[in-house]
Specification:
Length: 282
């Protein structure tokens, strides 16, 4: 689904109430209960400062003095630290640059203003930021539900940014996989093209939204951003998510390369959380 097919924009409505809060070109869409897409909704200077903060978090200087950015497996390796294609860092919001943190809070605020079903409150604000870098190929991440302990508490919104290369965000109410024998379309899987600076927020009734990423378009990162960061023409993609997981404060190192819900106890806890959410928002 491209933006022209998105049916309901709430940007105009928000602008009517507070014309200084929403940029003139912003598009804000309510995709379904508890899911908001923010497009062109951030001041470009603030957005680029936040992107710089994200990249800076992966910065290192090689023994020859060159600056590289990544989240690499070790001090001299060029192998990303998370699987064969991804680099990852997970840490408390306070440990990142303030521009990135502010961008995440602004997105949460805009989304909560756009959708009354997105829960509000200080206990819904992100405690942690996860950055995942996708360097090679066009593979993203298979469809899944964010129901691991690291993913966020209860119904707290997840704020998810696309920085750099364009990608396709797939989502559906119920999990889909290719073994179901039903096409994605018939199953009701929807798609949104995520460009540099686009953000999707989901929470409340949609907290356990099934979602995935594919079709990362190598080389679509804005040229100015790419040049500023010293990347080659392929660019890169970073997904920044802001998550509310206060009980993990102090345990961040355990979640740098976490594999989700592996033990039976973790799987049971995830199922209980999904069921409690479904009951609460029935
Ligand atoms: O890369 C993305 O945009 C999605 C990442 C994701 O689905 C997740 O961290 O749960």
């Amino acid at each position: 689904m491209q933006s022209s097919e998105l049916t309901k924009t709430v940007a105009a409505l928000l602008r009517d109430h507070d014309d200084e809060m929403v940029l003139p070109g912003a598009e804000i869409y309510s995709l379904r209960r508890g899911v908001v897409l923010l497009r062109g909704a951030f001041d470009p200077t603030q957005l680029e400062a936040a992107v710089d903060d994200a990249f800076a978090r992966g910065e290192r200087r090689t023994p020859h003095g060159a600056v590289q950015t990544g989240w690499y497996a070790d001090a001299t390796s060029k192998q990303l630290n998370y699987g064969t294609q991804r680099g990852r860092v997970y840490d408390r919001v306070e440990t990142y640059g303030s521009n990135l943190v502010k961008l995440g809070r602004r997105a949460l605020f805009l989304a909560q203003t756009a959708d009354i079903e997105l829960p509000l409150g200080l206990d819904k604000v992100a405690t942690h930021t996860l950055l995942v870098r996708y360097d090679q190929g066009s593979r993203g991440i298979a469809g899944h539900v964010d129901d691991a302990v690291i993913d966020g508490d209860n119904d707290a919104p997840i704020v998810s940014f696309n920085f750099g290369n364009t990608a396709r965000f797939l989502y559906a109410d119920m999990p889909w996989n290719r073994f179901l024998g039903v096409s994605m379309k018939d199953h009701g899987v929807r798609e949104v093209e995520m460009q540099h600076g686009d953000c999707i927020v989901w929470g409340g009734p949609a907290r356990y939204l099934w979602h995935g990423i594919d079709q990362i378009q190598i080389g679509t990162m804005p040229a100015a951003t790419r040049a500023r960061l010293g990347l080659d023409e392929k660019g890169t993609r970073i997904n920044a998510t802001f998550r509310c997981t206060p009980e993990l404060i102090g345990r961040e190192a355990e979640f740098q390369t976490v594999v989700k819900n592996m033990t039976p106890a973790e799987k049971r806890a995830a199922k209980r959380a999904r069921e409690a959410n479904a009951a609460a928002y029935a």
